[in-house]
DNA sequence: AACTTCACTTGACATAGGTCAATTTTATTT
DNA sequence: AAATAAAATTGACCTATGTCAAGTGAAGTT
């Protein structure tokens, strides 16, 4: 009944909260499984973000395009991570973002209504997301701090250390945007770092 | 039994989740009320952040001091907001931050153990914090975006618009740090903005 | 009221990183 | 394999913001 794909979510939920067998099946039945091909969009600006996505395997980026036509990347996420435009998802108002697959990607997804239902059915799931958001918030504060007060080369070295896989799987242009610099600057930083 | 101070918290909790009268008293009994004078610290680096604080009235900043001795301000918060070093609070490991009163401040506080208890007693409180962290996360992403991709003058104008009170209550030096610039730059930006 | 400290402003100069344009390298498509 | 497109590099130059130092003003303290 439960595929290995879905069980990956259960595995990660159990890392943080206790759930019963009943909870497990309630959770699993709330998700749909799907996949998307490289370069295709899960969401484009103007659309409402109807789902919250959990990546089983693959790579997803979220970004927006500013007035001058420049892309700015918020997130690049791999296996076993959540993605979505939370703001649009929770308000059910149109999004400003693109959510795009950078690799062929398998995911599971849950709609807002279904998630709200699930929160009522399985209070532990409320707690799971409380913990998840808490961690996401702390991490984003750290990223903010690094972007405000650390030079780009330190942010680059940090990423090399924390996410070496990123450089295998994602073009440098995207990594540059995620780090808050231009591709040219990243190129120069890498050159300096290799000498 | 319940003072007006404590009821402010209940008022804000009720904005987001439904709670019973029993829940209300469970919540209220979990908090202690206290106050702190201007320029005094709720937390200094090396200490564990034992409490999460809800400001009833006053102003609190959180900041750290870098290797070069420069202060960097994360948050400046007024009445009806939460403050604390979440990372230290949840891990119960030593903090890197100062949490300091910028005005004489009344607050209520809750310890980690008591909060964990409360989450079990009142599942709605879990949900309340889920929603709170979710919002904090989205807001921090916006702040990150602004700091990465918008010029300082836009961030300044934004603050003028969204938090005009800030300029009444907080020295410009602190506002500059919060905006991610030096006091000198803020001074020049303000000059330019007035002409 | 005088003293001291802190907050703010201004100027001269420095620098990290951005911009634009050309070139090379790598990947994708036919 | 050739053709095309996309990604990455490099150089010359620019700009926003930082740094350091001096000066003025405002606020808190004795």
TrEMBL record, chains A, B:
What CDD domains would the database entry show? Answer: CAP_ED (cd00038)
Q: What is one Pfam family matched by this protein?
A: cNMP_binding
* Residue ranges of domain Cyclic nucleotide-binding in the record: 15-118
Domain of life where this protein originates: Bacteria
**Protein name stated in the entry:** CRP-like cAMP-binding protein
Whose protein is this, by species?
Marinifilum flexuosum
